[in-house]
């Protein structure tokens, strides 16, 4: 058991895998377990989950710098981006980062039958390529190696060229300070750095984004509890029109972690996480980058880390290590000892 930023975590020594699965505070685990126990004993009532849904929605909005009325809920990033990709015009030119996570690129790539083209650009040329595209879709922090996108450059492209900017914050929100009200679409999954259960995701939309909520169901209604039968569809007038029916118990967990994260000094969280990651980079002869995710390409790195009791992931030919807010100098030393 360890403590960090005012919370207790049951994180094992050497756990450097938050980029795959984030570990929640102990109190959040208990809240989810209690929700499951209530379900298992027939004591839960569906409307009681509206409060955690609203709480998590508002906290995600705060984490990315928008109003809660701009945020839709879902269970996965690709699910939320599907209607956005389906709304781009026939023949639209979409650019993504080379090696982009497929939950970002696939929703657009499957629109090829309408003449939509998706081009991969080297990260260093992404802003340049975006200036010549109709849409740019990119992770704020790349999953494979932790590279941070040039957000200032993308914002300028949007303002100058009108390119639709779609951002995935799954590997960024929770450790990187974000202010993304300028972006057209901001989506993120909850089970990594937001330390929520898998089955939680959110998407922030600028009001002028035009898309059809193809996945609309009862929870997308203006009043969900009055919209479960009949037509016409009286959808919500804000981003809730894109809501997908929530995974209830998962939202209980999200309501425990996201408001806590939103209340932290995110600059301090970033300094802690990226500071540990940069210390590892320097120990193995790499330049610091300010990202909490490190990819080490040395031969046998993942095997050496595993033998040393370090939990990391094999990604894109390297060993990916992710330093969360609950990680310590002891975790760093264990990784360095295994790699150097």
Automatic annotation (TrEMBL):
Q: InterPro entries in the record, alphabetically?
A: Aminotrans_V_dom, PyrdxlP-dep_Trfase, PyrdxlP-dep_Trfase_major, PyrdxlP-dep_Trfase_small
Pfam families (alphabetical) = Aminotran_5
Protein name per Swiss-Prot or TrEMBL:
Aminotransferase class V
Look up the domain of life of the source.
Bacteria
Tell me one GO molecular function of this protein: transaminase activity
Q: Where is the Aminotransferase class V domain?
A: 88-210
Query: What Gene3D superfamilies does this protein map onto?
Result: Aspartate Aminotransferase, domain 1, Type I PLP-dependent aspartate aminotransferase-like (Major domain)
- Organism encoding this protein: Pseudonocardia sulfidoxydans NBRC 16205
Keywords, ordered alphabetically: Aminotransferase, Transferase
């Amino acid at each position: 058991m360890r403590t960090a930023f005012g919370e207790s975590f049951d994180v094992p020594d050497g756990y450097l895998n938050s980029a795959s699965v984030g570990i929640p505070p102990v109190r959040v685990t208990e809240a989810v377990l209690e929700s499951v126990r209530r379900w298992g004993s027939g004591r839960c009532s569906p409307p009681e989950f509206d409060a955690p849904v609203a709480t998590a929605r508002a906290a995600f909005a705060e984490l990315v710098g928008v109003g809660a009325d701009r945020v839709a809920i879902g269970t996965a990033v690709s699910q939320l981006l599907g209607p956005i990709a389906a709304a781009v015009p026939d023949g639209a030119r979409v650019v993504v980062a080379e090696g982009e996570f497929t939950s970002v690129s696939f929703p657009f790539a499957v629109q090829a039958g309408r003449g939509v083209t998706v081009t991969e650009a080297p990260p260093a040329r992404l802003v340049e390529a975006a200036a010549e595209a109709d849409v740019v879709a990119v992770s704020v922090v790349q999953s494979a190696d932790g590279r941070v996108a040039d957000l200032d450059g993308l914002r300028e492209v949007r303002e100058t060229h009108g390119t639709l900017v779609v951002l995935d914050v799954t590997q960024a929100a929770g450790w990187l300070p974000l202010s993304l009200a300028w972006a057209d679409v901001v989506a993120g999954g909850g089970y990594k750095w937001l330390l929520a259960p898998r089955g939680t995701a959110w998407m922030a939309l600028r009001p002028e984004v035009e898309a059809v909520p193809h996945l609309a169901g009862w929870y997308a209604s203006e009043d969900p509890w009055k919209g479960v039968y009949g037509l016409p569809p009286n959808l919500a007038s804000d981003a809730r029109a894109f809501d997908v029916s929530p995974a209830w118990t998962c939202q209980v967990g999200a309501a425990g972690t996201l408001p806590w994260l939103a209340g932290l000094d995110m600059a301090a969280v970033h300094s802690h996480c990226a500071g540990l990651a940069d210390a590892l980079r320097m120990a193995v002869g790499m330049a610091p980058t300010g990202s909490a995710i490190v990819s080490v390409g040395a031969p046998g790195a993942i095997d050496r880390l595993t033998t040393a009791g370090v939990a990391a992931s094999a990604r894109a030919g390297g060993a990916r290590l992710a330093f969360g807010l609950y990680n310590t100098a002891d975790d760093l030393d264990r990784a360095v000892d295994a790699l150097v």
